[in-house]
Design a protein that fits this description.
- The chain is built from seven helices and 15 strands.
- The strands form two sheets. Strands 7, 8, 9, 10, 11, 12, 13, 14 and 15 form a nine-stranded mixed beta sheet that branches.
- Strand 1 and strand 2 form a beta hairpin.
- Bound molecules: pyridoxal-5'-phosphate.
- Pyridoxal-5'-phosphate binds next to helix 5 and strand 13.
Length: about 280
């Protein structure tokens, strides 16, 4: 695997980062994950805009020709279906002082790992999820590498026999441990609004576009816990998982416990969107 580190491409075995890096010491950095289908990055500009937002919010002053670097990384890794991971940390500083150092060189790292996109909707089985208290910080719009709260919430779900955690704050659904959440109730599609309490998913926006194009009614309103518990369908969405149907919530079936019709409808459109991207 070829990776990019601070200005050069190299085999992953040769990539080395200082133990004094503030990413390592403080989790002081941001990241992006961009899905690549048949060598083509999906919604690249949107991912780069969100990266810029994360960089701005964390006072990381970095200018790179990201699109060119990503294209080179994809080519060096043979194209195909990849997940591009991009991370910027504040860089190495021996003082280990919380306050931002005056002169410091950010660490820029990128890798591309193979991933298996959804292809056949008939083989999708749906997942189990549990609700957990959203106890993360209040700046969730930043795609921060400081993911320990998300890690612990996902672990809590796994220990309860589920594959994902649906996060609830003040009685309403924010998002999942590493995905956005959609709740379908009485043919209306609900998802939390873009604010500081969620990461504005690129997949979330695409799904909302597909929902609208399908003529379905939708509201950017955080679903209440009781709406979630009485949902007709629940989906979690992210760049590498696309749209995942939740068929069991807190040990009880979601509606009849089967994948719902709106999921098939919107997921088919998602596959068409991918095919159009690949066809160029
Ligand atoms: C907390 C959180 N919310 C939402 C998402 C979905 O974002 P995207 O659709 O851009 O992958 C992610 C993706 O990693 C995430 O970590």
């Amino acid at each position: 695997m070829a990776v990019y580190l601070n200005g050069a491409f190299m085999p992953v075995e040769e990539a080395q980062v200082s133990v004094l890096d503030r990413g390592f010491l403080f989790g002081d950095g941001v990241y992006e994950v961009i899905p690549v289908y048949a060598g083509k990055p999906m919604r690249l500009q949107e991912h780069l805009q969100r990266l810029q937002q994360s960089l701005n919010a964390t006072h990381l002053d970095v200018t790179e020709d990201w699109a060119v670097l990503i294209a080179d990384l994809i080519e060096l890794n043979g194209g195909g279906d990849l997940s591009v991971y991009l991370q910027v940390t504040r860089g190495a500083d021996a003082r280990r002082d919380h306050a931002l150092p005056e002169s410091i060189f950010p660490t820029i790292f990128m890798m591309a790992t193979p991933f298996t996109p959804v292809q056949d909707l008939e083989v999708v089985t749906g997942i189990k999820a549990v609700t957990v208290e959203d106890n993360r910080w209040l700046r969730c719009f930043i795609k921060s590498i400081c993911l320990q709260p998300n890690v612990l919430l996902k672990q809590q779900a796994n220990e309860a026999g589920a594959q994902d955690a649906i996060l609830v704050r003040d009685g309403v659904v924010t998002e999942a441990a590493a995905a956005n959440v959609f709740v379908i109730k009485d043919k209306v599609v609900y998802t939390a609004p873009k604010n500081d309490l969620i990461l504005a998913g690129i997949t979330r926006d695409l799904v909302l576009e597909l929902v609208r194009d399908a003529g379905l009614e939708y509201r950017e309103e955080a679903p209440s816990l009781s709406m979630l518990e009485n949902a007709n369908e629940i989906w979690v969405t992210s760049s590498t998982r696309e749209i995942v149907p939740v068929i069991e919530l807190d040990g009880k079936p979601v509606a009849n416990g089967k994948i719902g019709p709106l999921w098939y409808n919107v997921m088919q459109q998602y596959q068409v969107f991918k095919q159009q991207l690949i066809a160029g």
